[in-house]
């Protein structure tokens, strides 16, 4: 195919028109925004689970809450807010 449509009324031409309409209608941008949001949410949930595991390791090794706060801030401060980090540490150290 390589961008060449042999029959202006054929299946490929019809499919190309549908794709063009989808992209030009703005629906594509809306769908990509939704996808990006969902992917960010999944990534954040994974980071939270990873952070909890790190807190548990620090706790098992005899680390203090302050040590856990510092390590989480260093490792997850770009993805989690300071309040979220504090909440996670307090949950694990209860």
Automatic annotation (TrEMBL):
Superkingdom field: Bacteria
Name the UniProt record assigns to this protein: Uncharacterized protein
Organism: Lactobacillus crispatus
Classification of source organism: Bacteria, Bacillati, Bacillota, Bacilli, Lactobacillales
């Amino acid at each position: 195919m390589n961008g060449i449509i042999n029959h202006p009324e054929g299946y490929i031409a019809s499919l190309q028109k549908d794709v063009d309409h989808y992209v030009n209608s703005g629906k594509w941008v809306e769908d990509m925004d939704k996808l990006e949001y969902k992917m960010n949410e999944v990534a954040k949930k994974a980071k939270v689970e990873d952070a909890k595991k790190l807190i548990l390791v620090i706790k098992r090794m005899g680390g203090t809450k302050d040590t856990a706060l510092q390590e989480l801030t260093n490792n997850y401060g770009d993805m989690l807010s300071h309040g979220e980090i504090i909440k996670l540490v307090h949950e694990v150290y209860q």
